[in-house]
Amino acid sequence: MRGANPIRVIIVGFGVVGRGVARSMLMERERMLSTGMDLRLVGIADLWGCMVDEGGLDIAELCSLDGVLARKTSIDKNMSSYDLIEKADYDILVETTPTNKDTGEPGLGHIKAALKGGKHVVTSNKGPIVLAYGELSKLAEENNVRLCYEATVGGAMPIINLAREALAGNTIISVKGIFNGTCNYILTRMVDTKLPYEHALSEAQELGYAEADPTYDVEGYDTASKLVIIANTIFGMNSKLSDVEVMGITRVTPEAIKLAGDSGYSIKLIGEVSRDGSLSVAPRMVPKNHQLNVHGTLNAALIETDLAGEITVTGKGAGSIEAASAIMGDIASIWIELYKT
After folding, report:
1. Does any domain span residue 1?
2. Residue numbers annotated as active site
3. pTM for this structure?
């Protein structure tokens, strides 16, 4: 038990999400202190190098740099992210490097190093959880630390912790929903504007909702990755991406959108995992008055249980502050469970 001592955090991957976590720590500091939780950001790492201050970094100054640490003269360009993870004095690693769906690196290596060193890990990085959840969970257990990853599935929309904690007394039968805001935005705009997929995609890219190469999102792989995480962590499966039947939205036409609308339905990219082991991602017809019929960049999930029936959650699935919300929730859960007196 650390009692009233500060909880020391390092962030590896000081990009959009990492900066969002830092800003959230600054925004919520007074409220957290009022509950007894004193979070200190003592180290950060990105491609430019690392910064460490055991007394706590100046978050306001860091955020004003827009994440470009090279502008900071005190940055150590010879210190690697692994040096920070293995040598710094901290309690929790926040790993927010970009997802690599093929190898999970560098996030996978970062998380392994922290767990082996007896440090708690909170991550938004899907790759390591998809590819090596069993190995990482075993490492966390062996070293008596926590591995938390709520931000990998629903962003600000809670799914993992909801299923594991609030619904712990239930048998969960299935989880299905909209897990990709980019696809949902494109499909929503195809309804609103009656324009073809290519035009809606271009608009999404101009607004920053879609990447220059949108394949990972629009072909359904992002949703499939999230289903694997749900399958393995909520249902205890040993699923891989290759176990998911995947169809994206690139073949959805204005004609299909109109036919669905005339019949009282919307077309949504739905990911579904069931207790029987089936995992699928595909455009589905959703009744217009259904709880999964959300619009724009919103995500929604319907959790079917034996006792509570159907539980639906809706929220923003992507964005700096939205991902930071889930990460901050995981940090708070570690503090409540392990450190709060």
Report:
1. no
2. 226
3. 0.93
